[in-house]
Design a protein that fits this description.
405 residues, alpha+beta, seven-stranded mixed β-sheet
Amino acid sequence: MEKFDVAIVGAGAAGMMCAGLAGQAGLRVVLIDHAKFLAEKIRISGGGRCNFTNINAGPSNYLSENPDFCRSALARYTPSDFLDLMRENGISWHEKHKGQLFCDKSSGDIIEMLRRECEVGNVYWRMPCRVHAVTRNEGSHPYYLITDAGDISVSRLVVATGGLSIPKIGATDWGFRLAKQFNLNIIEPRPALVPLMFDTISWAPFTGLSGLSLEVEVSLGETGHAVSFVEDLLVTHRGLSGPAILQISNYWTAGQLLLIDLAPTQKLEELLIKAKASSKRQLVNVLSQFLPVRLSNALVGHQNLSPSSRIQELSDKALRSLARASNAWKVKPCSSAGWSKAEVTRGGVDTMALSSTTLEVHGLRGLHFIGEVLDVTGWLGGYNFQWAWASAVAVARAIAAEDIQ
């Protein structure tokens, strides 16, 4: 049986970050992961360039049943801190959109940087390696792990196994099962940052729009504009996707309406009524000044209007109805696209059971949870990686400080 100061289960963003720092602080660290390939979620992020943080990241960009929990870690390790690490490793980056930072070259640069940090910290690797059981006893090394690579006892156990999104690259419920073993509550996990789907009949009029993309404002219909995002929308054969939908999916629950302003910078009611007084053009041609042609045709048809009708021939009531359908398009998704398409997990280990400073479980000394396995979910755009870095650093520093004392 081998003994370590710290065992970290999960060699993703949070796990490697924590392992490297803890090892560099002089602790004997073992990093365990069941996957064959290292950090696949980092590798596929941002189209292969990894949207590794967002310069605007703050507590308001995260969802949780315990919303104040993330404040401490985020305040103590900021996007600027991570950029310092990037500079030290000679990795260049660029801002793409709304504070989203991407590697200039490849997401592989981030993986290699974290691997080097672990190397500097003399971290021991066990990969691929499954943890079959964990027990807790008294003593200086209370956590006992039975693994494919042999039995391990450790003073500290850090769970960095992530959530359930994208199972094809290795996501499992191991972290949730371990939390339940130690009687921790789990906030129901569900797919987040995920496309939304519609039933075949209701979506039939819009299947021809597949591939269409435009900037919209999307909000939850029942709550008006309390939660809204102005981002690009992508129409698919079975529903809606794109950044606007991924963002609102964090807040959407089954049965809720979405309210989508297809022309967020235009007041179409005023524009159509004004056009009626001065134009002899066909309705679709007028509407297509403000919306894509395919979308204009679909909206006109959905209002039971003839695309060839001249705008002067139509009543003000019909034009107002069309304008409302465009500036406040109401749709009701039937489901999300599920775990295979979700970028992250909403819900997870209930943070009420943890210290927000050390991310240690109350009453279970030495057991910590970090990253996506926790009930902390960020917006689209690098926020979830920033939570991975910040939570990992919080735990590494806490363990190192206590060990030194």
